[in-house]
Design goal:
Elements: H1 2-15, E1 18-20, H2 31-44, H3 56-69, H4 73-88, H5 98-113, H6 120-124, H7 151-157, E2 158-159, E3 162-164, H8 169-188, H9 192-202, E4 211-214, E5 219-222, H10 230-259, H11 266-295, H12 313-316, H13 320-331, H14 336-349, H15 351-363, E6 375-377, H16 385-388, E7 390-392, H17 403-421, H18 428-438, H19 453-478, H20 481-491, H21 497-511, H22 520-532, H23 541-546, E8 547-551, H24 560-563, E9 564-568, H25 580-609, H26 625-674, H27 678-695, H28 703-740, H29 747-755, H30 769-804, H31 811-821, H32 824-829
Antiparallel strand pairs: 1-3, 2-3, 4-5, 6-7, 8-9
Helix pairs in contact: 1-8, 3-4, 3-5, 9-10, 9-11, 10-11, 13-14, 15-17, 15-19, 17-19, 18-19, 21-22, 25-26, 25-28, 26-27, 26-30, 26-31, 28-30
Amino acid sequence: MPDRRAQGYRSNQRTGSSVTLPNPQNPSSSIDTQKSLRYAIRILSSLMTPSIAPDSAAIAESIKRQLATQGKSSQALAFADLYTKFASKNGPGSIENKWAVLYLLKVISEDRKNQKSRSDSRVSSGFSASVGLPALFDAESGGYSGVSRNRETLEKGWNNGVLLVSKDPENIREIAVREFANLVKEENEVSEEVLVRDVLYACQGIDGKYVKFDKSVDGYLLRDSIKVPRATRITVQKLCELGWLFRKVKGYISESMDRFPAEDVGTVGQAFCAALQDELSHYYKLLAVLEAQSMNPIPLVSETANSGTYLSLRRLVLRGGAMAGAIHLHAQHGDPLVHEFMRQLLCRVCSPLFEMVRSWVLEGELEDIFAEFFVLGQPVKAESLWREGYRLHAGMLPSFISQSLAQRILRTGKSINFLRVCCEDRGWADAATEAAAAAGTTTRRGGLGYGETDALESLVIEAAKRIDKHLLDVMYKQYKFKEHCLAIKRYLLLGQGDFVQYLMDIVGPELSEPANTISSFKLAGLLESAIRSSNAQYDDRDILDRLRVKMMPHGTGDRGWDVFSLEYDARVPLNTVFTESVMARYLRIFNFLWKLRRVEHALIGAWKTMKPNCITSNSFIKLQSAVKLQLLSTLRRCQVLWDEMNHFVSNLQYYIMFEVLEVSWSNFSNEMEAAKDLDDLLAAHDKYLNSIVEKSLLGERSQNLYKTLFVLFDLILRFRSHVDRLYEGIHELQSRTMESLSPSRDKTRSRRLLNDKTAEPGAWISDGRKALTQRAGEFLRNMGQDLDAIAKEYSSLLEGFISQLPVQQHIDLKFLLFRLDFTEFYCQLHPNM
């Protein structure tokens, strides 16, 4: 190799050959032109040989398939038409080596696609990254690897755009030796990706770089000089049997069509060849898909996207359940001899597979060393065992086992493992023994075989029925699943009324403080006080110990009301149902219900402040009539607005607590009783939770309604603050009015407070009834304006909220419209309707 390369350069030197390059001093020289010229020289100066045997028809078919798999059907048809014209031209002036031209175009196309992914280091080492051609041209320096890289020498070599290739034997020999060493290494260390591609070539009757057809043995062989494991070599030979069969079929078609219209072929023989050719077309499509997967390592269609399983030699070989299924298809034969032979063969082939099924459904053991079973397991945490620990492998599911039966087999083994790992229960063994007895089989090995599909199905059904029932009994009785669901409803969904009311009362003052100043330990103590002061104290201690205070992430401006929440600690195996994502949804529902209860609590507090007996008209006897009328008008407006808000909150709370929570809980309880396995239980709980979320305006399609509702809540809380200020001022005014009737007054202090324009209602002390009346009128006027603004905003928001209800998807939300729409206060708001 080194001598050959050196000889080539010396030949060029003797003949004075030159290479025309763009002059770098010429400003009109295009960068693209320089790159293209360098690329062409790099290809033409290559001494490497192609990696596949010369066959113009085969390479044309490969190009056409490649275009078709890329979705370029029109280009594939155009290429086929051009190739037909190109191949038909013979004689003087035509191209003799047509295959070389096609191969060159294909190689250039592939090389251009991979040009961005190639590194300069591999180019300068003497080989092209994807084509396998020597990179004699140095893309960075603009010179050749075999030419001196000295900048001054290059500059001296330029002569009117022509570079004379000088003799530099030492550099040439160094590059040639390095190329030869890399070539030897490449030829003796072959990656699996390259072998897969060669096998796919062999399946099309084409010799690859390492796998070639040997006429002496009449088969495809991997060269002995290639260093691969013995198992890999055997696998390649097995797969290449398909290529041998392809050559036989293709040869028969070509031979018959060449002899047509000979009598021994005839029209029937021609039709048979046409049918075979159609089958080969489907065969080509399959190989095109496999070839595309070998070039672009994407997961197979039958695998999940995150399985990490790609096309390999092992996946090209049928094995396990897939092999049993393929043999089973051949057993469906009308010839009794063939049928009996295939049946006997399948009895032996399926024996390990049926033993895996027996071991899985009766013992929960996955004895699958070689990944041949249609159930796959993976290591996961205990809480994820049921959902993620096991799954079906569709590629290994034999055709004589239905999808429904396979799902039942999967669930039965999962149930045993769930009982063993998560519940620490051993009662499933008795259930498995009873199932085997009921199905008329045995728990020992070898009890099932091919042809006993009915017995297999009977065993699986009996085992699933008993083991699933035992699992539900363990969940309900030992781990008290129903009681925990009820506890979550009572505490996280605020169904325990006396507990919620007492909790609101004792944590209210604490939660009114900034969130970053509140102690979680103090709140935990208040929670315990609320439990002891309500009927919650009679619950199971295990349930109460799981109830905890949780402070959500908060900013500097948040109050305790905004970040306070309760959480429920669901441990194994309950966390199989109450996963982190499920508890996050419960937390979201709690936050909504807590805000609703807070608004209700605020309105109750406002009512306590507004009690009619708190204010007497005799207190304002000394005030002017206009001020007294203004006071009564303000109080009436405040009372009417409270009535409207209270009516809205009461109806909304009734809807949430009864028509949403209670109805959903009733349906969930019925479905829990009807559940036959853990999957049914999980589905029932998911349905229960989804029902609450959708009906409570927390669904994705109710976000606008949800935001409007929370603005209404904030407005009601603002109204509560306004009521407190109003009645605080009225009580202060009432006390000062009574004071003005007393002869003993501090006139100096009164004048000072009267002149202080920033004085609050509590500083109303004046030296006369006129000043007191003036300040009272101003205060009531301002409070009346604020009430009017709140009432106007509330009416607008409420009307917007109600107008969005008819377009909601859930039917119960439309019934909420009737409850809020046909009311006395709504008619008062809209007297013209």
